[in-house]
Amino acid sequence: MLPHTALKLQEKKRNNLKDFLNVAGPMGVTHFLILSNSNNASYLRVARTPQGPTLQFKIHEYSLASDVARSQTRPSCPPDLFKNSPLIVLSGFGSGDQHLKLTTIVFQNIFPAIDINTVNLSACKRIVLLNYDKESKLIDFRHYSIRLQPIGVSRRVRKFVQSHQVPDLRNLQDVSEFITKTGYGSESEADDEAATVSLSSDLGRVNQASTKSAVKLQEIGPRMTLQLVKIEEGLCSGSVIFSETGKAASEGDED
């Protein structure tokens, strides 16, 4: 996943899995994410190179990033969001079952490890959330952007500080009306509904060190609802470590 993705890899119709595996090492590829479709359902395979294991998920529901953006009043997904790896949060996987432990390890290893003592806060712009429901045995995949907003500052003031564009004050008697007039100050989003943090260092022009800022998450997609159906010991092959049906399913039923 961006930025650690082999974007320069050229795919051809005659290529097979072995071809991609041969170039995975030189290109630094550690995981394959393979989508497949059958008459009954769509599937996602997450395979660790070069020797596995491979986790196979049935996709119950999904929405593309474009679908998520169309559902929002003010969608925002600037290109610099993908210059750094996202944070990953796993919830509900601590039941002690071996297949869930292996799922946790695989997803954690997809993303680079983060040292909380040395991490640069300005690099933390995205978060991937995986939530496991033990009743339904479904995994919700969500992808959000992270932004900080200083508490008690209206949207108009934040935009002015960030953009340095002179606001239109022609219809105002005094510059103070830019902040106090109804329609400006009331545009500040509710701070009591968001988690707040105290910054250890300056983050941009608005969020200053030793001040409190509200943490805002905005979904950028894609979103998926997954069900773990099988774990294979090798790379898309080998003995079946886990099967939701209790027995190895045939390839023809799932691909």
Automatic annotation (TrEMBL):
Entry GO terms, CC: preribosome, large subunit precursor
Gene Ontology terms, MF aspect: rRNA binding
Pfam families referenced in this protein's UniProt entry, alphabetically: Brix (PF04427)
Xref: InterPro entries: Brix, PPAN-like
Ranges for domain Brix: 1-237
Biological-process GO terms, alphabetical: ribosomal large subunit assembly; rRNA processing
Source taxon at top rank: Eukaryota
PANTHER family given in the database record: PETER PAN-RELATED, SUPPRESSOR OF SWI4 1 HOMOLOG
Protein name: Peter Pan-like protein
Annotated source species: Anthurium amnicola
